[in-house]
Amino acid sequence: MAALNKTRNLSILNVLSYKIKYCPRVNVKRNLNLQEYHSKDLLRKHQVSIQNFRLLDSKLDSKILSDFNAKEYVVKAQILAGGRGKGHFDNGFKGGVHLTKNPSEILPLAKNMIGHKLITKQTPKEGILVDKVMVAESVNIIRETYLSIIMERTYNGAALVASPAGGMDIEAVAEKTPHLLKTVPIDIYEGVTDGVAIEIAEFLEFKGGMVQKCAEEIKKLWNLFIKVDATQLEINPLVETDDGRVVAVDAKINFDDNAEFRQKEIFALDDVTGVDPREREAASLNLTYIDMDGSIGCMVNGAGLAMATMDLIMLSGGRPANFLDLGGGVGQAQVSAALRILESDPKVKAIFVNVFAGIVNCATVANGIVAACKESQPKYPLVIRLEGTNATAAKTILEESGLPLKIINDADEAAKAVVKLAK
Q1: d(CA 419, CA 135)
Q2: Which of 124, 128, 96, 80 is closest to 271 using CA atoms?
Q3: CA dist., res. 42 & res. 221, Å (int)
Q4: Would you say 12 and 159 are in contact if contact means Cβ atoms under 8 Å apart?
């Protein structure tokens, strides 16, 4: 049983760590991005205990803080990036997170942040512009725990994941101390029962009257998870304070994209200010664009082929500058736009089109490429490999176009050719 539990915990670990380890390389779709204050507001609307907070913008209106009293305040720049506390601003100001017990220091701190770019390990080199600052009540923490609700394939549904070792890398906890990680499958119809909530609270090492308080918070979090069509709700840390409260200090929420039609208010909060303009344009065309650091642009169909294509490029001595996933059911106009998006990347020196068609029609891809190149001559050498549905017709279209295209059937040879052209 211990071995089985460890296996299940590592399965949960895989779900939690997959995006961190692999999605910077391949994402099938950009996730909805909510600022920290939006996530906290969702928690508050569903009666989850959080720190009281206020929001300041460029107006720096002191009236917003007039009725906000706390023993200590946390002043946090709002951007979609981690490492804010250790970051610095383009005006020389240090730190995107500050603590103060003096209310008169809040506005000067915010003034040094708003309207300036914050640079952290997770931002672009030039940083991200801060237009809002959250001022939150600082809480005195006795203990930090971890709680998340995720959709887990192992259980064909939702699962609660809990650990008394909160405030740290949960993947490391699962790997090094699996006995400190508990996973409980949740029946989507029955929900989190009183018994399950108390079981989790006790595992999180809450004692006495705090057990019931924690159990109530867990049930509220489940209610939020269901009501907003979440696929992941992570509270790290869920803390016990010195005044006897259970507080969700930090939250990460992922949403089911298929539920956008009934979660319009939430999806309208999507923050795209830190998103690459090419990625935004691709998304508007129902395509997926991912920026990387090499010199070869990649047009593919499907995340699996994207990874294989990038591996071929790397093995041939090159590096991908980006990749654009056409997905299924793509039209000619989308293919033409995709090529222009790839060409707009200043890092690109050559482009590799690698399509293995099933639902996608190779002839459609070929016509899209030809149309784009005839409208405007290609800026960079194009190496094209098309296999699958209508591949023969597609090659004829490309060959008869009269365009300077390099058509290669073998994937390895195509990768070697594009690497050579990019040097």
Answers
A1: 50
A2: 80
A3: 10
A4: yes
275 is in an annotated binding site: no
Each residue's pLDDT tens digit, 390-407: 999 999 999 999 999 999
Q: How many C-beta atoms surround the C-beta of residue 404 within 10 A?
A: 10
**Residue from 108, 128, 133, 110 nearest 118 by CA:** 128
Specify the amino acid at residue 71. K
Whether the bond into 237 is cis, omega within 30 of 0: yes
Residue 304 labeled ligand binder: no
Tell whether residue 250 is among the known ligand binding residues: yes
Q: What phi and psi values does residue 160 have, to the nearest 5 degrees?
A: -95, 130
Q: Return the SS3 of 58.
A: coil
Q: Cβ(228)–Cβ(263) under 8 Å?
A: yes
Catalytic residue among 152, 234, 240, 279: 234
Is 84 annotated to bind ligand?
yes
Residue 172 φ/ψ, nearest 5 degrees = -65, -35
Phi, psi of 145 (to 5 degrees): -125, 175
Tokens 């240090």 belong to 94
| Dist CA 304 CA 311 (whole Å) | 11
Amino acid letter, residue 320 = P
Annotated catalytic, 190? no
When pLDDT is averaged across residues 122-151 and rounded to a whole number, the result is: 93
Picking from 95, 92, 73, 93, the residue whose alpha carbon sits closest to that of residue 84 is: 95
> Across the chain, what does the average pLDDT equal?
89
In the block, which residue shows the tokens 């989850």?
48
Choosing from 36, 146, 199, 240, the catalytic residue is: 146
Instruction: Report the side by side order of strands in the sheet with 133-137.
Output: 53-56, 133-137, 73-77, 97-100
At 311, the amino acid letter reads D
In the Cβ-directed half-sphere of 299, how many Cα atoms lie within 13 Å? 32
Q: Do residues 281 and 382 touch, judged by C-beta distance below 8 A?
A: no
Copy the structure tokens of residue 225: 């998870």
Contact (Cβ atoms closer than 8 angstroms) between residue 224 and residue 230 = yes
Q: pLDDT tens-digit profile of 142-154? A: 999 999 999 998 8
CA end-to-end span of the chain: 55
For the whole model, what pTM was predicted? 0.69
Burial readout 329-360 (b: 16 or more C-beta within 10 A, e: otherwise): ebebebbbbbbebbbebebbbbbbbbbbbeeb
Is 139 annotated as a binding-site member? yes
- Could you confirm whether 37 is annotated as catalytic? no
Contact present, 282 and 324 (Cβ < 8 Å): yes
Strands 53-56 and 133-137 come out as: antiparallel
